[in-house]
Design goal:
By secondary structure, this protein is α/β, with parallel strands linked by helices. It has helices at 32-46, 100-113; strands at residues 2-6, 11-19, 50-54, 72-80, 87-95, 117-119, 139-143. The chain has two helices and seven strands; from the N terminus they run ββαβββαββ.
Length: 147
Amino acid sequence: MRLFDRSLWFASVLSVWTLWGGGVVAQTAPTTLEQEFQRELLLQADGTNSEAFLGQLPPDLPIDLPLPDQARIIGSIVAAEDQKNPSFDYEIYLTVPRSPQQVMAFYQEQFGLAGWRAENLPSPGFVRPETDDFPLASNFCKDTQKR
């Protein structure tokens, strides 16, 4: 799920990935080495201008992100577009004991109530974004420019 905040001076992208395992598994807390490994894996996905936060939302997330009941934050990534452009991409990784379709319906309702609207944006490359093995994706936009 991606959110686009259209503004003359600020644009952000928020991706919320939900991982569905169909059940709850007891886990032990990761060791420092495991946390560092997870951090490196997250950063490899977005490049060097990124910062990863394990088990938490970014501290500077510009919206109040609603979370479904029993959602667990796996981690998040903030990626800067470049040094001159104050534009950031936010990726949030969640695990939720619901189907991907139920999570998508939750976010469509919650973002709709907050004034965001669904947008159909082109799919990146030749990959179909919605398959049985890949999370559902949706794009939401909200104009923040004063006209």
